[in-house]
Design brief:
The protein is mainly beta. The protein has a single domain, classed as Glutaconate Coenzyme A-transferase (3-Layer(aba) Sandwich), CATH 3.40.1080. Helix content is about 10%, strand content about 35%. The chain is built from two helices and eleven strands. The strands form two sheets. An eight-stranded mixed β-sheet has the order 2-1-3-6-8-9-10-11. A three-stranded mixed β-sheet has the order 5-4-7, with no helix packed on it. The longest helix is centred in the first third of the chain and has 13 residues.
Length: about 160
């Protein structure tokens, strides 16, 4: 991850998790987020749980499809995890240089249609009825910078905002 990218993701996640009572955090996520959660937030380590229900699940995905399908690594077990909202938090490109944001997942899908939000170092993308919609951009990043790294249609919101920190 580029310098500062992890900080952008963590900062945006903290904003998203405010007021949340029960959060599940997947492996690969910046551990610095845990002490920043509100003191009354219960967090669950996805790697150490099987059947649990939470308000928000935050995972790092191998891929997310435009239908919200989620492909995670084989080491991440999410079968029994139930969440009202699923957020993918990760750099837009994987370590191999390939995008995580695709029309259809090439990796095995563990959960179908569950992802609602993707938080990257470049901006925030909602997954909804129009597929991927770019809702927020990091200052200094253009929508075309994000579009070039996505292997699917990407709608840019009419009211696109600059990423809140």
């Amino acid at each position: 991850m580029k310098f500062g990218g992890e900080q952008v993701i963590v900062s945006r996640l903290i904003h998203e998790l405010q007021g949340t009572r029960r959060v599940a955090l997947g492996p690969g996520l910046p551990q610095q987020i845990i002490p920043l959660l509100a003191q009354d937030t219960d967090w669950v380590d996805i790697a150490q749980t099987s059947d649990v229900a939470v308000d928000i699940a935050v995972v790092e995905a191998l891929e997310v499809s435009e239908k919200g399908d989620l492909a995670v690594g084989a080491e991440t077990i999410i079968d029994g995890l139930q969440a009202e909202k699923w957020i993918v938090a990760a750099p837009i490109l994987r370590g191999d240089g390939e995008t995580r944001i695709v029309r259809d997942c090439q990796f095995p899908v563990q959960k179908t249609g569950c992802v609602q939000l993707i938080v990257t170092e470049l901006g925030v993308i909602e997954v909804g009825r129009v597929g991927f919609e770019l809702r927020e951009l990091v200052p200094g990043v253009a929508s075309d910078d994000v579009r070039m790294k996505v292997r699917a249609s990407l709608h840019v919101a009419d009211d696109i905002a600059r990423l809140r920190s």
